[in-house]
Amino acid sequence: MEISRIFLGSLDFVLLASLVVVHGDPLVPALIIFGDSVVDVGNNNNLVTLVKANFPPYGRDFVTHRPTGRFCNGKLATDFTAEYLGFSSYPPAHLSQEARGNNLLTGANFASAASGYYDTTARLYGAIPLTQQLSYYREYQSKVVNMVGRDKANAIFAGAIHLLSAGSSDFIQNYYINPLLNGAYSPDQFSDIILGSYSTFIRNLYQLGARRIGVTSLPPTGCLPAAITLFGGGSNQCVARLNRDAVSFNDKLNSTSQTLRNLPGLKLVVFDIYHPLLDMISRPDDNGFSEARRACCGTGTIETSLLCNSRSIGTCSNATQYIFWDGFHPSETANEVLAGNLLSQGFDLIS
Ligand SMILES: *[C@@H]1O[C@H](CO)[C@@H](O)[C@H](O)[C@H]1NC(C)=O
Ligand SMILES: *[C@@H]1O[C@H](CO)[C@@H](O)[C@H](O)[C@H]1NC(C)=O
């Protein structure tokens, strides 16, 4: 890996970079990923669901210049993270052909677009609920135990970084549009419900031997182009109500995580992606961006602004200066900035 690729913003990065270079091996044995479309690398390709990204123009700037199922023009933040940690490949999608043999020993990706803390969110869209992702992880663990034996396998599970990205779909693709939920619960009450699922998930993961876990906060959901289209009432400004709910959820996520840190030996880091993304959106020029509102793909009229596919009218020719690739997801450039933030915040997970 090249040091120059690292977003050198703090001493931690410098220290990490030198660690990577000195040893040449990854800093941790494996990277295990759970969650939603922000981190899905192709599990949904294998499902009967409308929530897929395995067609152009998705992937056009990826290493292979082909769609993979990633909801991005190029790499996800977690792809950069894998590189920064010193891995030479990305954890394969659990349901893909690549998830076999030695590939399993450096990690796996169980994430599924449109999944979330609330299992019903995933079920609405035919995605893989978080509880099912955990069952797949159990299957994965058995395979690893069969390959390397119980002791070595346990060392891999305890040393591996487990990343979880969830919650956005629960709000945007379920709570805000589902009268059964928003009629019954306030955003605060809904947050409490899904944070109950979060606690259970972390405890189960801990039971399975995970000791290094990172969870991402909600992004500024009110600034996602699709959210502005759906809930902005014709304005092109971030939807303040949604951002307030995200901040309030993130505070609760923080305090819930503080309680979970009582589990002996558990390192649990809450990654703040709210502020880094809001910072990019508020001051795009400072971060080398020229477009913070419109997505590169799927822009145009209100009707098409939710959809990105090969027939999307007006897809931008170069996504480099766009913060958003499609209505819900950051571009590769924005992901690289986010990954730099993850790295600096995640130092405790590695040391
Ligand atoms: C969590 O709390 C810490 C300090 O208590 C604060 O520095 C951090 O910004 C909070 N994180 C989020 C995501 O709100
Ligand atoms: C996209 O634009 C950036 C500068 O914003 C430039 O460095 C890059 O080469 C361009 N990519 C393509 C494929 O034109």
Structure, briefly:
Pfam families: Lipase_GDSL (PF00657). By secondary structure, this protein is of the alpha/beta class.
Keywords for this entry:
Rossmann fold; 5-stranded parallel β-sheet; binds 2-acetamido-2-deoxy-beta-D-glucopyranose; disordered N terminus; GDSL_lipolytic_enzyme; 351 residues; 5 strands; alpha/beta; globular
Could you characterize what this model shows?
The chain has helices at 11-23, 77-84, 119-125, 130-148, 150-159, 168-172, 179-182, 187-207, 225-231, 240-260, 274-282, 332-345, 347-350, and strands spanning 31-35, 107-109, 161-165, 212-216, 267-271. Helix 2 links the parallel strand 1 and strand 2. The protein contains 13 helices and five strands. The protein has 351 residues and is an alpha/beta fold. The model is unreliable at 1-12 and 300-304 (pLDDT under 50). Helix content is 40%, strand content 7%. Helix 2 (77-84) packs across helix 12 (332-345). The chain has a five-stranded parallel sheet with strand order 2-1-3-4-5, sandwiched between helices. The chain binds 2-acetamido-2-deoxy-beta-D-glucopyranose (2 copies). Residues 217, 250-251, 254, 270, 272 line the site of one 2-acetamido-2-deoxy-beta-D-glucopyranose.
